[in-house]
Amino acid sequence: MTTASRIIWRTIRVFNYPRCCMLNNNVTSLSSCVKINNKKNIILTSTRSISTSKYYYHENDVIEEEVKAKKKKIFIPKITLLSEKDEISVMTLDEAQKLAKRRALKLIKIVDFDTKTERPIYKLMNISDFIKEENKAKAEAKEVKENSIKEDKTITVSSKIGDHDLNTKIKSMLKMLGKRHGIRAVISVDGSQEKADEVRNKIIESCKEVAKVVTKSDAAHNFKVTMRPIMQKAKDKVLNDEKSNEPEQKEQE
Q1: Could you count the other beta carbons within 10 Å of the beta carbon of residue 150?
Q2: Which residues contact 146 (CB under 8 A, 6 or more apart)?
Q3: Among the three residues 147, 178, 197, which one is the final residue of a domain in this structure?
Q4: Mean pLDDT by 10 residues, the chain (253 residues)
Q5: CB within 8 A of 172, min separation 6: which ones?
Q6: Long-range CB contacts (< 8 A, 24+ apart) of 175-178?
Q7: 91 contacts 119 by C-beta, under 8 angstroms
Q8: Could you state a single Gene Ontology molecular function term (predicted)?
Q9: For residue 161, what pLDDT is reported?
Q10: Is 168 helix (H, G, I), strand (E, B) or coil?
Q11: How far apart are CA 190 and CA 121, in angstroms?
């Protein structure tokens, strides 16, 4: 490539070809002889040659200029890390795992996602503390499970029921209350409503030590009562009943 051609194409690259409509009277229109590719800045001439007084630029001459692609930044999520002394630091999970390995500590996730920092929270703990925390968490979960009330059991009773059968029904209710079930007693009105109300009151009175009344409702055809167990009292009642029944079972044997 001649010196003049180099100067022309350097000028085009620097000033951008739309600004350089005519370089001199002897140069053909650049808009008809320049093409730019999207991927590479490839400047091509048309079939005609470009002349600049004494010098000629042949159609086969091509100038290629590589466009440097911008490197995409890879997003690496970070975590909030609490040390053994509850000192806060921010780092990647990989860095935290390496730190825990170097110090022979356990890396424990304590919060899945903190809305304030928008990061999960991890903590470094030594093995003995980790075991203590794990046992404590298991004990708390067990306590919550033991103190949680199970689904209600529905027991239907007729207002004409005899005393013996009613006492059997009440014993069954007490056992269910001891197993953390709620009780929904439905007394069907077979005759007078007063008798149905009397049966319901006897059920409530018999269970008042281990259960509390949540709802009561009266209708033309039935009377209802819903009771929920008082947890510890219900358990103690069941245990006492089991102990009192043991001598009777031995005598029968």
Answers
A1: 11
A2: 180, 231
A3: 147
A4: 67 52 43 43 44 47 58 83 89 92 91 89 89 86 78 92 93 89 92 90 92 91 92 63 57 51
A5: 155
A6: 175/238, 177/207, 177/210, 177/211, 177/227, 177/229, 177/234, 177/237, 178/210, 178/229, 178/234, 178/235, 178/237, 178/238
A7: no
A8: ribosome binding
A9: 92
A10: helix
A11: 63
Give yes or no: residues 44 and 93 share one domain: no
Closest residue by Cα to residue 122 from 150, 148, 92, 144? 92
- CATH number of the structural domain spanning residue 201: 3.30.110.10
Same domain, 165 and 215: yes
Lookup result for tokens 């027991």: 155
Instruction: Let me know if residue 118 belongs to a domain.
Output: yes
Predicted pLDDT at 234: 60
**Rounded Cα–Cα distance for residues 9 and 12 (Å):** 5
Q: Do 133 and 160 sit in the same domain of this protein?
A: no
Q: Which domain holds residue 103?
A: 78-147
Q: How far is CA 204 from CA 81, 181, 190, 210, 216, in A?
A: 55, 16, 20, 10, 10
Count of domains for the chain:
3
Beta partners for residue 158, in sequence order: 188
Instruction: Among 147, 173, 201, give the residue marking a domain's end.
Output: 147
The whole-number pLDDT of residue 117 equals 87
In angstroms, the CA 151 to CA 171 distance is 18
Q: Looking at residue 32, what is its pLDDT?
A: 42
With b for 16 or more beta-carbon neighbours within 10 A and e for fewer, the 194-214 pattern comes to: ebbbebbebbbebbeebbeee
